[in-house]
């Protein structure tokens, strides 16, 4: 939230500088624009560095969990990330919904009723998880939709 506000302030300041630039107040505007662009660039670099550190920590933790649970070694990092997205259970999961909508582009969502959307989301989530589990080709387990959704 704080970063959004900071970006909004920076964008307003850049817009002000650009409008001054259009009205031929160029000398001061160039310096202000350079300062705002440098601040914006520095902020993006900090965000990039923070994301890189989070990603590296996530990989290290995942490797530790793979040692504890050998089943995780059967999935790629990407597959595990997708399963984590699918298994999140809080009420409104924007990331999960975006993922499912991209995956099921031809699926018709009932966007008028939130309860219906939740049911559809759950149904598609179960289908995805079923697909992942069936890809393991485990022979003794019952991987039917009824078993997984129970």
What does this structure look like?
The chain has 150 residues and is mostly helical. The protein folds into two domains: 1-73; 75-150, no CATH class. The chain is 74% helix and 0% strand. Helix 1 (2-22) packs antiparallel against helix 2 and helix 3 (77-87) packs antiparallel against helix 5 (114-134). The longest helix is centred in the N-terminal third of the chain and has 43 residues, at 26-68. The chain is flat.
**Which shape, going by the Cα principal axes?**
flat
Distance between the termini: 37 Å
Largest sheet: none
Query: What structural category do the secondary elements indicate?
Result: mainly alpha
Strand content: under 5%
Number of helices: 6
What's the quick description here?
This protein folds into 2 domains: 1-73; 75-150, no CATH class.
Describe the SSE topology.
Layout: H1 2-22, H2 26-68, H3 77-87, H4 94-103, H5 114-134, H6 145-149
Helix pairs in contact: 1-2, 3-5
Defining traits:
150 residues; mainly alpha; 74% helix; single chain; 0% strand
């Amino acid at each position: 939230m704080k970063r959004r506000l900071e970006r909004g302030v920076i964008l307003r300041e850049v817009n002000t500088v650009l409008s001054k630039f259009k009205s031929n107040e160029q000398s001061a505007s160039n310096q202000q624009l350079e300062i705002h662009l440098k601040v914006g660039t520095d902020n993006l670099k900090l965000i990039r560095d923070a994301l890189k550190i989070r990603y590296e920590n996530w990989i290290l933790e995942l490797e530790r969990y793979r040692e504890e649970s050998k089943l995780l070694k059967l999935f790629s990092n990407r597959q595990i990330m997708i399963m984590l997205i699918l298994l999140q259970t809080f009420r409104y999961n924007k990331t999960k919904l975006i993922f499912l909508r991209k995956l099921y582009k031809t699926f018709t969502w009932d966007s008028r009723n939130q309860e219906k959307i939740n049911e559809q989301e759950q149904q598609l989530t179960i289908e995805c998880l079923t697909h992942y589990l069936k890809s393991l080709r485990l022979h003794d387990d019952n991987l039917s939709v009824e078993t997984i959704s129970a």
